[in-house]
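hiii so um. not sure if this is the right channel but i have a protein structure encoded as tokens and i wanna go backwards to a sequence. like what aa goes where. can anyone help
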């Protein structure tokens, strides 16, 4: 069973981030990247169909989700390497009164079992999700990962990281959440990361932030088509670790190690801390503080004036 306890999804999804060629890769990586670029042209021959089921009270939500252009899911099929998207994916909209809703924590907005997706529209998405459509994109990605890999084992960190990449482009929330997780926690191994997904809400938020960053790191180095190649190989029977090593050129453990080496706070994050957005936030906070102090000072002065006036009356 493949299950996503997603403390749910967010923003406008879309295309995957472009490659960022790194200088230390050498000719071998340049050749690999060129090969990956060629592979990214493997678009699905037709768009994915969703079969959305809902009780009468959720008919309006169903209608809204059904109105989404099916081509908006083409990038997910392409990301996971499905050229033939196959039969429709079943999406069940479950009300809060349902057994499905009562069976999972209140902060879980959706999950996937095999190729079946369940969404809870009444639950406001929290990190890593922003909207119901994003939750659906995330869960559909899990269903398609299951389909392309034939249900064979995929580590949770990779499964979730790919679903997050399918859901949206990396945003400010992801960066700040990752930064928070880096400064408040120590390096986490892949096994530990998978166990965090089984923990409470804060453990899962950490797991999503790290898994999303780790998989994006793999994309940055090896291109988004690497993901499709890994999943396709698993679908043909290769163990995940072997498929990953064949495609990425390094083992998952080595990729994890490289990821943590790149997360050096002062070299990697200082440019973001000093970005225009953060500086404007700091300036705004300073302005608010100045206003607050000025008002407090004015109140003290008025209080003193009141005392002085009362003192004058006493003299009369
Ligand atoms: Zn998930």
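sure thing!! here u go:
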């Amino acid at each position: 069973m493949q299950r996503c306890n997603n403390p749910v999804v967010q923003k406008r999804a879309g295309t995957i981030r472009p490659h960022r060629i790194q200088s230390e890769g050498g000719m071998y990586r340049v050749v690999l990247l060129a090969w990956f670029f060629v592979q990214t042209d493997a678009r699905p021959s037709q768009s994915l169909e969703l079969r959305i089921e809902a009780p009468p009270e959720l008919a309006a939500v169903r209608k809204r989700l059904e109105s989404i252009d099916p081509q908006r899911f083409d990038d997910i099929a392409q990301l996971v390497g499905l050229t033939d998207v196959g039969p429709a994916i079943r999406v069940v909209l479950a009300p809060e009164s349902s057994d499905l809703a009562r069976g999972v924590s209140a902060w879980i907005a959706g999950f996937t079992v095999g190729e079946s997706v369940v969404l809870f529209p009444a639950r406001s998405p929290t990190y890593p999700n922003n909207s119901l459509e994003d939750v659906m994109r995330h869960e559909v990605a899990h269903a398609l990962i299951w389909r392309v890999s034939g249900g064979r084992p995929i580590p949770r960190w990779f499964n979730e990281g790919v679903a997050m990449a399918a859901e949206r482009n990396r945003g400010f929330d992801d960066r700040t959440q990752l930064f928070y997780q880096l400064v408040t926690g120590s390096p986490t191994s892949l096994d530990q990361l998978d166990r965090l997904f089984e923990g409470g809400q804060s453990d899962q938020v950490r797991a999503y932030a790290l898994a999303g960053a780790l998989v994006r790191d793999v994309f940055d180095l090896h291109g988004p088509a690497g993901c499709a190649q890994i999943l396709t190989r698993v679908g043909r029977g290769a163990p995940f670790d072997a498929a990953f090593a064949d495609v990425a050129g390094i083992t998952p453990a080595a990729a994890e190690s490289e990821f943590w080496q790149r997360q050096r706070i002062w070299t990697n994050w200082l440019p973001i801390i000093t970005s225009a957005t953060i500086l404007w936030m700091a300036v705004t906070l300073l302005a608010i503080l100045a206003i607050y102090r000025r008002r407090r000072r004015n109140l003290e002065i008025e209080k003193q004036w009141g005392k002085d006036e009362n003192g004058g009356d006493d003299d009369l």
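oh and Residues 123 and 206 are 20 Å apart (CA to CA).
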